[in-house]
Amino acid sequence: MKNQSAADLAAVATLLQIGTELGLDHVLEPGNPFTIASAAEAAGIPKAGVAAYVETLAAAGLVVPTDDAGVFCASPDFAERRHEAGYLAWALTANSPLVENAREFMFDRAGSARVHPRDGRRVAVSSRWIGERTFYPAVLNRTRASGASRIVDLGAGAGGLLIQALQQDPSRTGVAVDISASACSAARTAAARAGVAERMEVVERPIESLIDDPDPIKGADVITACFVLHDIVQNDALCEAVLRQCRDALPPGGAMVVADAVSFAGGEDERRFSALFTYLHAAFMEIFLPSEKEWLEKFRAAGFRHVESHAEILPGGRLFVAVR
């Protein structure tokens, strides 16, 4: 499928964001046939409204009727279209409090951050749309190769990555850790729908709390963290303390598998999104991203014996594998 035009991206991102706000995002999954009635019941909204929304999705080519009368499913290219639109949804919807109040942040960043916080659920959902076809596969390939029986995902968001990791192996268990109450709620709901709730614990707490209470990571064979460690990485003492706790919790040969961003990546295909990501975090959150070399040094300083990085995930992102 060729890349979407700017008009296509805007339409798909907005339509799918509306679906998320309506509570229909879990209905609109590839391989999940649905009816107007079943979608309305799942989301708890009127059938007439769902009918109008689904009619619009069908006109846009995002859902198609099946051979069964009244039954719809996601279009064959739905996952790719959602992935590409995810960048727009993350930039302008998940980060809308920052973008819309840019002038206020210029004068009083700390005060504006308290008044205009990001919605954790929107960040988690748009990150999942991006991640499912970029860094999720890279992380999941590592967990599969490791044969891990227990995985802890730090900054798990809506739980999409960990759920897929649990679906890889029906004997595997996991813990999803996230600071956002709304993201944790979404993760619990998603785990129940995926049939892995009994094997997936959800813990609502910041990752820096692991320094004083590492219980959530005890027994892990692999600890994953996708675009969350940059929240603490500029505080060298705090970052090293968290990474050391993770290292100590792992068995010999166990690993941290971390997807995160580097500052102002220079590759031609990544420089624009990397510039936006770097600026949003620095200007609005006072989070200053490390270079790739600085990331590697932080894992080594925490005592990991082997650390490597890979660039083929998403623009400005790197996959770090740190082995105890």
TrEMBL record:
InterPro entries per record: COMT_C, SAM-dependent_MTases_sf
A Pfam family: Methyltransf_2
GO BP annotations listed: methylation
Keyword set, alphabetical order: Methyltransferase, Transferase
Molecular-function GO term, any one: O-methyltransferase activity
Signal peptide region: none
Domain O-methyltransferase C-terminal: residue ranges: 139-305
Keyword Lipoprotein: no
Protein name from the UniProt record: SAM-dependent methyltransferase
Source species: Micromonospora parathelypteridis
